[in-house]
Amino acid sequence: MLPDTGIPTLTPGYAAVPPGYLATIVTSLEMLRPPPPRPGRPFPPGLALEPLARTDPETYRTLFREVGADWLWFSRLTLADGALAAILADGDVEIFALRRDGRNVGMLELDFRRPGTCELVFLGLTGDAVGTGIGRTLMNAAIGRAWARPITRFWVHTCTLDHPGALAFYRRSGFVPFAVHVEVAPDPRLDGTLPRTCAPHVPRLG
User: Fold this and answer.
1) Adjacency order of strands within the sheet including 153-159
2) Which one of 25, 36, 114, 137 has the lowest number of neighbouring Cβ atoms within 10 Å?
3) By three-state DSSP, how is residue 30 classified?
């Protein structure tokens, strides 16, 4: 078992993934002090980072799908309404939609519920916004908001289902890897949580 986690440690070798499931390698990263500033241009005219109103779970899930469906984000889609509503209502959780002319093109979620710590829960862009340079601006906003509070640790995790450049992007931003896990979970495309057409680069086993 890994210390303090209760997670069993894998042994060397191969393990089969059951039909209908996905396996992904999850890398957790942290920064223990504010990093040196990285250049980033301001959001261009018409683009704004707006706090998401404390609203109903389905409005949040719409934003979550728009940003994360291409990368098989599913955790918030399978969370019960009551549990998600409690997160949305918590004053120590900050959620923002990045909007262009009233349309969602990105999201940012920061969780300060553990004293002294901030988790970068979600940071992402829709497909048409990836590669435009605004990801750096969004990350700079995340770092600034996190370290504006009295924290000593800012952390995030990414996985092999995310954009292939995500891990390198986090490292360039000042995060340092500290743990690696393997997660096996039901494929959200097989039960209707996400459309079957999502993430065609990830094989469906089922």
Assistant:
1) 47-51, 93-100, 103-111, 117-125, 153-159, 21-31, 176-186
2) 36
3) strand
Q: Which helix (H) or strand (E) is 57 found in, with range?
A: helix 57-68
Q: What is the pLDDT of residue 42?
A: 84
* Amino acid type, 55: T
Tens digit of each residue's pLDDT (9 = 90 or more) over 102-150: 889 999 999 999 999 999 999 999 878 787 788 999 999 999 999 999 9
Distance CA 121, CA 24 (A): 17
pLDDT (tens digit per residue) in 164-180: 999 999 999 999 999 99
Q: Is residue 49 a contact partner of residue 98, using CB atoms and an 8 Å limit?
A: yes
Residue of 100 and 142 predicted with greater confidence = 142
Whether 181 and 150 have beta carbons less than 8 Å apart is answered as no
Give how far Cα 83 sits from Cα of 54, 75, 91, 92, 202, Å: 14, 12, 15, 15, 29
Q: Is 135 exposed, middle or buried (0-12, 13-18, 19+ CB in 10 A)?
A: buried
